[in-house]
Design goal:
Mean pLDDT of chain A: 84
Number of domains of chain B: 2
Largest sheet of chain A: 6 strands, mixed
Strand order of the largest sheet of chain A: 6-7-8-3-9-10
Radius of gyration of chain B: 31 Å
Helix content of chain B: 40-55%
Number of helices of chain A: 7
Distance between the termini of chain A: 33 Å
CATH architecture of chain A: 3-Layer(aba) Sandwich
CATH superfamily of chain A: P-loop containing nucleotide triphosphate hydrolases
Radius of gyration of chain A: 18 Å
Shape of chain B: elongated
Structural class of chain A: alpha/beta
Number of strands of chain B: 10
Largest sheet of chain B: 10 strands, mixed
Number of strands of chain A: 10
Oligomer: heterodimer
CATH topology of chain A: Rossmann fold
Order of helices and strands of chain B: HHEHEEEEEEEHHHEHEHHHHH
Strand content of chain B: 15-25%
Low-confidence stretches of chain A: none
Structural class of chain B: alpha+beta
């Protein structure tokens, strides 16, 4: 069974003549451990699609199911959405978005504590994740005191904290040079394989495109599958 | 994980500077409270601490503090003869400005009958009461003088034999007690040259009125300006006598104005103190409002500095409670620490202020309550901004 199944989702902003269709009849499926790229120019609808998939925007129509469980069902409240996001989704940001006044370890532990894990267990798990991502030597540093590549690894560690089946990455390599970008791609691939998480990355970065298992191209809100070679060219 | 405290720990300098800044503002609020109460306390101090039942002043006058009152020096004898009067004493008060220790100082002179009369100083904190008819003085510590120091008043040096603490007039100036004779001399004594000119002018007027020079010279002493006037007569009523009835008797028999202690106090509170009290009250209220607005803006700015972190927290699934707690705790930390700073600062320095500060615990508690509630209200602006920030704000560069 696929980990994420999207069937005919559509997102419309505004009404009547002012209506803008940002995402139009998008359907796809992603399996556990799959690394997916979502490519498209500015205004193509890829961010709207990501916001729908991460439960920030509710689709106007269509169904999203995670592990076979339909989300945005009738009666879902903000609390259900937040809990689902905490438990099932991890985020990796272009700007890393680490909390600037928390240490590297606390940034990772925070994601666990928000999910109800007690402080001691959260710190233990954070330490393990930092070791796994080979950034444990920076555990007590503030984000501002480490490099961009290191910050991205911390961001990945935080995204993995609650073992989510889905990871969304927003331009994960855009702010990194080629060498660091390739390292992050290798890391994402390793995470997808070893943690069995599906990773969907919105990206403009064609340098890294060969690292993805599946590539989707979005244009005017419509999704199509693309081949890595064709995109790279 | 307490995010608010973590943020404070990471930005100790910034928060300390904020706390000191807000604390200074709160200190001004507390000082204004103190001045407000001090103005009232100073205003009625002399009335409250003068050992008398009745104040007898010039007819149709609101004296001796709100309006000048002049009575002949011996009128107290007539008052003393009124039924129901146990003791009547002459009393004079006026404000002077003299150079003391090289500085211009304003103070109020109280002249009273030093041999058992009413109206003398209350508790002497150092030295003794006046025991001689002339050239001795009891002064308040606020005048900045020491025991046995000699102060020039008129043509004489007066020795300070006793010191009081907290004896002030309605304007907060220190009180100086003199014998009635010394106080009258200081007030009425004219310069020799001025005296000679006045006498010559009077002689000329008498001669122009048809008197011979000899007659004019003999009439002159009778026409001299009185120098034994007093401001009021202080009355202690006999045991069992009703102050109101005695006052009415003096009023109708001697054609004088009479105020009981309560009436004299009301006269002061409703007259001289009223406008200043209103102004200080207004300033006090405005300062509290300004303080709350300042906290609101500070919390708003602190929230806006963290808005991306807040959006990230929301995206990570943080509940609204986590966000509210982050902002509210910082608001409370700033408010409480700033108030503590203000309280300690004012408590340590209030005696150095030129005006009397009266810090009532009830005022401090109420101010704290208002500021505390204001701090919570102020943080609502930041909370509102944080809660309306969409999680999607965290996405993108």
């Amino acid at each position: 069974m696929s980990i994420l199944a999207v069937n005919g989702i559509r997102k419309v902003f505004g009404k009547g003549e002012l209506a803008v269709v940002a995402v139009d009849d998008v359907s796809f499926e992603i399996d556990a451990g799959e690394l997916v790229a979502l490519l498209g120019p500015s205004g193509s609808g890829k961010t709207t699609l990501l916001l729908c998939l991460s439960l920030i925007l509710e689709p106007t129509a269509g169904v999203i199911a995670v592990n076979g469980k339909e989300i945005f069902r009738d009666g879902w409240t903000g609390i259900d959405v937040r809990r689902f996001r905490r438990e099932k989704i991890g985020f990796i940001f272009q700007g890393h978005n680490l909390i600037p006044f928390l240490s590297v370890r606390d940034n990772v532990a925070l994601a666990l504590q928000l999910n109800g894990v007690d402080r001691r267990a959260a710190r233990r798990r954070a330490r393990d994740l930092l070791e796994y991502l080979e950034i444990d030597h920076r555990a007590d540093y503030l984000p501002a005191a480490i490099s961009g590549g290191e910050q991205q690894r911390v961001s990945i560690a935080r995204a993995l904290a609650n073992n989510p089946p889905l990871l969304f990455a927003d331009e994960p390599t855009a702010s990194l040079d080629t060498a660091r970008g390739e390292k992050v791609m290798a890391l994402l691939k390793r995470v997808a394989r070893e943690k069995n998480s599906a990773i969907i990355a919105v990206t403009h970065d064609v340098r890294m495109i060969s690292g993805f298992d599946t590539i989707y191209h979005i244009m005017d809100g419509r999704l199509s599958r693309a081949e890595a070679d064709a995109v790279a060219v | 994980m307490d995010l608010a405290i973590k943020d404070v720990q990471r930005h100790v300098g910034k928060f300390l500077a904020t706390i000191i800044g807000v604390g200074m503002l709160f200190a001004i609020v507390l000082i204004m409270n103190g001045i407000y109460r001090g103005n009232f306390s100073d205003g009625v101090w002399l009335i409250k601490n003068t050992d008398t039942d009745l104040w007898v002043v010039e007819r149709d006058r609101g004296g001796p503090f709100n309006e000048q009152s002049r009575l002949p020096g011996d009128v107290y004898r007539s008052v003393a003869a009124t039924p129901g009067v146990d003791q009547a004493s002459p009393f004079i008060t006026y404000t002077v400005q003299r150079e003391i220790r090289g500085k211009e100082r304003q103070f109020t002179v109280i002249g009273y009958d030093v041999f058992g009369g009413l109206g003398g100083p209350g508790r002497i904190v150092e030295g003794r009461r006046i025991q001689r008819a002339h050239y001795e003085m009891v002064a308040d510590l606020k005048l900045g003088v020491k025991l046995d120091e000699r102060v020039r008043l008129g043509r004489h040096d007066v020795t300070i034999v006793g010191l009081t603490k907290g004896a002030v007039d309605a304007a907060g100036n220190p009180l100086v007690y003199l014998s009635l004779a010394d106080a009258q001399e200081t007030l009425y004594q004219q310069d020799n040259e001025a005296l000679r000119s006045a006498r010559a002018a009077t002689l000329q007027r008498l001669e122009r009125a048809g008197n011979t020079p000899d007659q004019a010279r003999r009439l002159l002493p009778l026409l001299s300006v009185g120098s034994d006037n007093i401001s009021a007569v202080l009355v202690r009523v006999s045991p069992g006598a009703v102050a109101g009835q005695v006052a009415e008797r003096i009023r109708s028999w001697l054609y004088l104005n009479v105020y009981t202690q309560d009436a004299e106090r009301t006269l002061m509170v409703e007259g001289r103190l009223k406008k200043m009290t209103q102004i200080l009250g207004l300033f006090r209220s405005l300062l509290i409002v300004v303080s709350i607005i300042m906290i609101a803006l500070l919390i708003y700015v602190l929230t806006m500095e963290k808005i991306k972190a807040i959006a990230t927290l929301k995206l990570l699934g943080a509940s609204n409670g986590v966000i509210v707690r982050l902002i509210l705790e910082q608001s409370l930390v700033i408010t409480l620490a700033a108030f503590a700073f203000a309280y300690v600062t004012v408590s340590l320095t209030y005696e150095m202020f030129p005006r009397t500060l009266v810090l009532l615990p009830a005022d401090t508690r109420i101010t704290f309550g208002v500021i505390f509630a204001g701090g919570i209200l102020a943080s609502l602006l930041g909370i509102w901004q944080a809660l309306r920030t969409p999680p999607s704000f965290a996405l993108g560069g």
